[in-house]
């Protein structure tokens, strides 16, 4: 079967392409922006990519068109599909019908930490010899690929609350029907499709409604939004993590790189790993709970976490030039920016920390999170904000109240110049964006080398 994927370089759709290819289909795809890591992964898989949405790419007609949620009415390829009566489906629906049917699905949902936690969970199951399938919105470094079918009934999926397609406004995760579900946290996000937090809570409750009575739901005890979701009605056993929960962590190092795990009052062991930050400690507890539900004893899970490498673009060290370290991080919500910087600050102590932030997500473009931005960068010594001409709101006015030395730049060159002038051996630079950021990481490394 020939499947053509519109919007193939999105992290979800690119992963879907890998699974379709593994199932034996001929897979092609197109996207407005073809950039790594997804473009690199797809090309390595022998999947043919086309830049742009010219309807000519759909001639001769494929057997099925999978339409990504970034595409809407008016897109030339979408209009061609509808006018010609071509068979089409959303990505989540295709995944549910062709991959997840009959599997034991372990879903990881929440505003933050989905990619890290699903990568972690897939690795813990792999380490225990369970050969899981997975679909992750990033490239987990323990596997080097973002999706695979796997050799057992177990399938780990990053379960996103974003909508499914222009013709299906339900959250993607409603399609997945998990038996084990991690609900990491819940904050207002995706202002382009949700009016308020209550609207997102309703979608999360749609997910809860699909989890069987012999399944398991795992969530932090401290998350009030998730408590409200559970209170709407729950038919499934629940385990909680964190203060007051069944699963608890005691930090043995301030940065979260070592911590003791206990379950139901019994100490299970010590995690000693490469990651930092309270958010990753919380993710680890949820993962150990989910893994235990499918038969991985906590001591096995703890051993696996010691060998875990986070997904690409999750505090990924991309360069070290003349003593200056550059990290690439996907953070694009004030909470994620704050937790990322806090974790690094606790690891590096008083070393100089420079943050470079691109407010690129749809919610950011709408200005939904702008009030949280000045506070989010407290742990940095200085911050460079990127304000492209089309941002639509006054970034400089928003961050003017920040107590951290701040520069707002309208070009990558200005950012590179500023960082280069300031960085000295030992400086840590974190570049945060949910896009390619114009290849800033490589350009900055090259400028520092000169």
From TrEMBL:
Domain Mur ligase N-terminal catalytic: from-to ranges: 2-99
BP GO annotations: cell division; cell wall organization; peptidoglycan biosynthetic process; peptidoglycan turnover; regulation of cell shape
SUPFAM superfamilies: MurCD N-terminal domain, MurD-like peptide ligases, catalytic domain, MurD-like peptide ligases, peptide-binding domain
Lineage: Bacteria, Pseudomonadati, Pseudomonadota, Gammaproteobacteria, Pseudomonadales
The reaction(s) this protein catalyses: UDP-N-acetyl-alpha-D-muramate + L-alanyl-gamma-D-glutamyl-meso-2,6-diaminopimelate + ATP = UDP-N-acetyl-alpha-D-muramoyl-L-alanyl-gamma-D-glutamyl-meso-2,6-diaminopimelate + ADP + phosphate + H(+)
Species this chain originates from: Pseudomonas taeanensis MS-3
Superkingdom of origin: Bacteria
InterPro entries assigned: Mpl (IPR005757), Mur-like_cat_sf (IPR036565), Mur_ligase_C (IPR004101), Mur_ligase_C_dom_sf (IPR036615), Mur_ligase_cen (IPR013221), Mur_ligase_N (IPR000713), MurCDEF_pg_biosynth (IPR050061)
Name of this protein: UDP-N-acetylmuramate--L-alanyl-gamma-D-glutamyl-meso-2,6-diaminoheptandioate ligase
Domain Mur ligase central, chain residue ranges per copy: 108-291
The keyword Transmembrane helix is annotated on this UniProt entry: no
The protein's annotated pathway: Cell wall biogenesis; peptidoglycan recycling
Keyword terms of this UniProt record: ATP-binding, Cell cycle, Cell division, Cell shape, Cell wall biogenesis/degradation, Ligase, Magnesium, Nucleotide-binding, Peptidoglycan synthesis
Function: Reutilizes the intact tripeptide L-alanyl-gamma-D-glutamyl-meso-diaminopimelate by linking it to UDP-N-acetylmuramate.
Residues that coordinate or bind ATP: 110-116
Family according to the record: Belongs to the MurCDEF family. Mpl subfamily.
Cofactor(s) recorded in Swiss-Prot or TrEMBL: Mg(2+)
Keyword Nucleotide-binding: yes
Gene designation per UniProt: mpl
EC number: 6.3.2.45
MF term (GO), any: UDP-N-acetylmuramate-L-alanyl-gamma-D-glutamyl-meso-2,6-diaminoheptanedioate ligase activity
Residue span, Mur ligase C-terminal domain: 313-435
């Amino acid at each position: 079967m020939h499947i053509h994927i519109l919007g193939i370089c999105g992290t979800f759709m690119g992963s879907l392409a890998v699974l379709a290819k593994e199932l034996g289909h001929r897979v092609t795809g197109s996207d407005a922006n073809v950039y790594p890591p997804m473009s690199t992964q797809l090309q390595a898989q022998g999947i043919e990519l086309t830049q742009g949405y010219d309807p000519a790419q759909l001639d001769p007609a494929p057997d099925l068109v999978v339409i990504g949620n970034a595409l809407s009415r008016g897109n030339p390829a979408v209009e061609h599909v509808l006018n010609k009566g071509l068979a089409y489906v959303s990505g989540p629906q295709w995944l549910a019908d062709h991959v997840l049917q009959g599997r034991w699905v372990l879903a990881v949902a929440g505003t933050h930490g989905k990619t890290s936690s699903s990568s972690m969970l897939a690795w813990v199951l792999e380490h225990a010899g369970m050969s899981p399938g997975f679909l992750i919105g990033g490239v987990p470094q323990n596997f080097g690929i973002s999706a695979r079918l796997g050799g057992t009934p177990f399938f780990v999926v990053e379960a996103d609350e974003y909508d499914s397609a222009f013709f299906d406004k339900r959250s993607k995760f409603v399609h997945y029907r998990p038996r084990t579900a991690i609900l990491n946290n819940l904050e207002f996000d995706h202002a382009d499709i949700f009016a308020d937090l209550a609207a997102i809570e309703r979608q999360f409750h749609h997910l809860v409604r699909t989890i069987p009575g012999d399944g398991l739901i795992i969530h932090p005890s401290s998350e009030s939004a998730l408590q409200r979701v559970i209170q709407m009605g729950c038919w499934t056993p629940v385990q909680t993590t964190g203060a007051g929960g069944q699963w608890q962590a005691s930090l043995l190092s301030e940065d979260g790189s070592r911590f003791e795990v206990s379950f139901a009052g019994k100490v299970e062991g010590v995690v000693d790993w490469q990651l930092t930050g309270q958010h990753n400690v919380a993710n680890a507890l949820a993962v150990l709970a989910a893994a235990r539900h499918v038969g991985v004893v906590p001591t096995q899970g703890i051993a696996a976490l010691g060998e875990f490498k986070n997904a690409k673009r999750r505090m990924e060290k991309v360069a070290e030039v003349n003593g200056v370290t550059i990290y690439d991080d996907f953070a694009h919500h004030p909470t994620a920016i704050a937790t990322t910087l806090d974790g690094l600050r606790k690891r590096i102590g008083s070393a100089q920390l420079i943050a470079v932030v691109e407010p690129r997500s749809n919610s950011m473009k709408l200005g939904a999170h702008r009030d949280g931005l000045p506070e989010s960068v407290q742990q940095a010594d200085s911050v460079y904000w990127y304000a492209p001409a089309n941002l639509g709101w006054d970034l400089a006015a928003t961050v003017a109240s920040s107590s951290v030395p701040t520069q707002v730049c309208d070009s990558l060159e200005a950012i590179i110049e500023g960082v280069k002038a300031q960085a000295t051996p030992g400086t840590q630079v974190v570049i945060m964006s949910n896009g390619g950021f114009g290849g800033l990481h490589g350009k900055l490394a090259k400028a520092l080398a000169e």
